[in-house]
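Hi there,

I know you've been waiting on this one. I reran it after we fixed the sequence typo, so this is the corrected version. Both the input and the resulting structure follow.
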Amino acid sequence: MKSSLIAILLAAGFAASAQAAPATPSAPADLDLGITYYSRVLTPEGVTRESRYEEKMLRRPGHVWVERVLAPSTDAHAGHKHGDNTKVALKTSTAATQHEHKHFNPVLIPRHVMLEKNTVRVEYIDAHDKIVVSIPKAEYENVNFDGSWENSFYLLDPKLVAAMPLSKQASNVTGARWREVEKNDVFQRILWDEQKQIPLIIESGDRANTFYRRVDVKLQPTVSKAQPWANLQNYAQREYSDYLD
């Protein structure tokens, strides 16, 4: 969703004007968010496919924490077993030890994005097995991460949003305004909270109604004191490559 929006904004020629957009506030608000993603696609065979999922997000200075809302029965671990009860023997330089080989599933465990000295880092934190999985830049695409701090912290780059024309659609949210762009019968609409610096609604689709996507962002009334990325001293450190075949 987010990368699709940015691609269309660039195609619509808003990148240059975004350079002159006002700078974002130096201290954006801390937020606890509930985010719902919905998509509908009409295939060439006439089949309509819909999907919907939810995430929870914490936004703090230098930190973004995102976790999928999973079904109650889901076993949320850093990896899932390769095959049905299959064990693979892995030899190390010190001993031959039996391990269960697992594939890494970035959907099942929370993502922690950090900004340190203008450098973005991303890791996944498995509280159940007490594991931190670091993701190198070369593997960002494999975990569906675009490497952008702005897209993580604000959900959309505020400069690109500011470059979009204001919409005629009225907003019923104080401090939020609709912005809209359309090119080649493909539209994008954003309800942007200018005080909180976060989109409340993101919509995209085409006039032929072959696809439609929507993101709804709900601000929680209070900000929790939780910092789930803290106190990881006893967690094992893993690399993404540890989960590859």
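Quick highlight: Residues 2-21+28-81+88-154+208-243 form one domain.

Best,
R. S.
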